[in-house]
Amino acid sequence: MSRDCPSQTMSLVGSAGSGTQSQNSVGSNGRGADRGRGRGRGRGIGNRDGNHPVSVGTRGSGAQVTQGQTQARIYNMTREEAPASNDVSGTILLFDIEVYVLIDPGSTHSYISSELASKIPGKNSHLGYNLMVYLPVGGGVMVNSVRKGSIVRIGDVNLHVDLVVMDLKEFDVILGIDWLAQHRAVVDCYKKEVMIESSGKPKVVFVGDRQVVPVCVISAIEARQLMLEGCDAYLAQVIDAEKVNPTLEEIPVVRDFPEVFPDNLPGLPPHREVDFTIETLPGVAPISIAPYRMALVELQELKKQLEELLEKGFVRPSI
Question: Which of 168, 172, 173 minimizes the C-alpha distance to 32?
Answer without folding.
Answer: 168
